Amino acid sequence: MRCLLSASLALATLAGTVCAHLPHSSSSSSSSGSVVGKRRKTLGFGPSHPHAVFRSSPYQIKTNGFTPQDPAMDPLEVARIFVEDVLSERLDKASSYKIRQDSYTDKNTGVTHVYVRQLVNGLEVQDGDMNINIKDGIVLSYGSSFYTGPTPAPFTNPSSSANPHSEFCQSLKDELPPHLELAFTSNSQVAMGTLLSIPPALMHLHADHCVSLSSPPPPEAFSEDPADFRSALLKFMATATPSASTAEDILNNFGQYRDEMVFDPTHHFTSPSGVDEHHVEFEVRNVPEAVNPVKARLAYTQVPTADGTSAELHLVWKFEVEMQDNWYETAVSVSYPHNIISVVDWASDSPMPIPSSSTAPIPKYPSKPDPATYNVFAWGINDPSVGNRSTVKENFDSLASPVGWHALPYGNDPAFKGARLVGKEFWRNTTTTWGNNVFAQENWEGQNSYVNNYRPDSSSREFDYKYKPKETEKGDALEEAQKYINTTVAQLFYTSNLVHDLYYRYGFDEISGNFQQYNFGRGGAENDAVIANAQDGSGYNNANFMTPPDGQNGRMRMYLWNTAIPYRDGDLEAGIVIHELSHGLSTRLTGGPANSGCLGWGESGGMGEGWGDFLATTIRSNKEYSDYAMGAWAANNEKGIRNFVYSLNETVNPSTYKTLDKPGYWGVHAIGEVWAEILWVVSQRLIEKHGYADDLFPPTPSENGDVPEGDFYKPRKGGKGPLVPKHGNSLIVQLVLDGMKLQSCRPSFFDARDAIIQADQILTGGENFCTLWKGFAERGLGPDAKVEGRTPWGGGVRTNGYKVPLACEEY
């Protein structure tokens, strides 16, 4: 049944809705076509949380009065006691919390990562997060952004008129050089684009976030009913659309678009995210520019007070909006004029889990085919400039991909969705680039369909295709590139599966939110394999990855690069593919699998980019040290697409923590460069101490699933304790992934640094405490580093810290 919101809805959200039959009417939205070389429009901003903390020191935790519990106590019970201890003065009938269902125990370290969401007046505080890391009854560390102010009356907003969107734009404007003032006195993007003195990255940042709509709708266009989310949603869509004509059409025909929206209420006895009970959300259809129904729900969000020392709660509509080039999670104020409070783009450019000890048996194959083969640039060959193709086997890992790369259950196969399956066969063996971890195909039309898109099909499962593009006239270059789509898709499928298997072995498994259609009874949410689109037709010279919460498919779009003739195919540069897949890794591990809003902007969003660069560079590196550029082959530029190549030499790459203060370092990619460079330096210090592993893949498991130590892991006494990689390059990968699990939602550089150092304490007993601190301090991120006046996107005044802890001064 299609339902239109009634005036009594919001105040009865948890009780029910009033429904009426309405005629279906399609939206008249339009979308602008992609322009060659055009940057994808993306929004990403939100309030700062000055009260947020990450505590990784036992002394900091003891100050709350919390004492260790019985080692045998259920970690979730330990977490409950801890939360109620920390919030003893804040918990009442109106303010409470819920332990989320995506909490899990890491199989290697034994640390339980517990995720908690704050509730006020029965509604979630959408940025009120706590993550608690527990082992043997001890809270090792925790992060919290819980609201600590007075509880508001139900369904009311504070009297202040705070508008974080406007404050964001004003603070950005204030930090710009005075001669750029002219750019922000015009409402015309065209006029702004003619000011050639403005740096392109800065133009992109301000134009996407802050350019006012030329003709906002009058107040009477908005519904006076605070229960009616349609006006708030349209206000966001007019801001988010990349098409100026569509935005204008929405504003000029606001009432028509609003009245054409229809919705379905979706009731959950237990919320999919484990946040609250008797939860109601709405699926809204006929939303202009949305490619799928929009999810809407009522919530609170925190907005800093005028003095910036505390926060107040604002009632908001929380929307999940999937567009052609974006997948947004946004909070828009319930009351007029519907201020946009926060936006996270899940697209990045460029039941309780079943305990692992009770793994369900995997249904056996009726027949298991021989491994597939691929003629590809093998693992470790970053791009065509550094090596040739060769024939390799389907090198799946028996832990990460128990049934290989070309099999999945019929019941989890999107190609059979809604079909009535006859017979008793469980597994489907495919002869295409379609399996449990990855669906790879062309997407020349640049749309969201993928099931029936073209992909190579080999009955012998020998994916051997030529690749020898010719130099052509510019007008024929696209057609020439498309001739080699079989090679491209096979390469993308191969690289993506290897990344899946590698990250799995370092702890990105089912319960921590990895991407698989079927989870083999090992916990986590299913039906979320990566949709990998090759030669995507929505643009050039880029790549992106959309990471919704666990249980929804990740979507990767790889592009052609028109930087040379013949065109260069980003699918063939492993570093770009690894970077994009790493967005899925860091987003799912930070803040828990069911929360994709922890790396949206500022330093945290920048680190999302930096981890991708660092892991891609680490994977391509070898024992003989070299500097590395990012995207050099695709961009046809030996220096790559970043400001600097990654190097130990400070004259080649001078990046330090303080570099973030420089003009041009407000965007997440520039912030990410600094974080990746710092990690690169840290990794080289670990390699100097522990040596280098020629292969980052751990040893093959035995038939019973045990992992031999071999020369990869440090020997364990009596075969007990966590597996610890013994070489520097493998150890840093483990510490980075473990650190993502430990750190808080919306982490700063300091939080991520401290989480990596704590990961080493958990894994090795702190063997590398001083090595890690010295590496971080080498680029200004020592314990004496600080930042003052941090702004929402990462601005502020930083001070480099080159000291190390006292215990390390003689080290």
From TrEMBL:
EC id: 3.4.24.-
Domain FTP: 101-146
Residue spans of biased composition, Low complexity class: 25-36
Gene Ontology MF terms: metalloendopeptidase activity; zinc ion binding
Highest taxon in the source lineage: Eukaryota
Cofactor(s) essential for the protein: Zn(2+)
Locations listed in the record: Secreted
Residue stretches spanning the membrane: none
Principal location: secreted
Residues annotated as the enzyme's active site: 580
Binding site for Zn(2+): 349, 579, 583, 609
InterPro entries linked: FTP_domain, Fungal_virulence_M36, Peptidase_M36, Peptidase_M4/M1_CTD_sf
Chain residue ranges for the region called Disordered: 23-51
Cofactor remark from the record: Binds 1 zinc ion per subunit.
Enzyme class: hydrolase
Keywords in alphabetical order: Hydrolase, Metal-binding, Metalloprotease, Protease, Secreted, Signal, Zinc, Zymogen
Alphabetical GO biological process terms: proteolysis
A Pfam family recorded for this sequence: Peptidase_M36
Any one of the GO CC terms: extracellular space
Gene3D superfamilies, A to Z: 3.10.170.10, Neutral Protease Domain 2 (1.10.390.10)
Signal peptide: 1-20
PANTHER family recorded: EXTRACELLULAR METALLOPROTEINASE MEP
Family: Belongs to the peptidase M36 family.
Record's protein name: Extracellular metalloproteinase
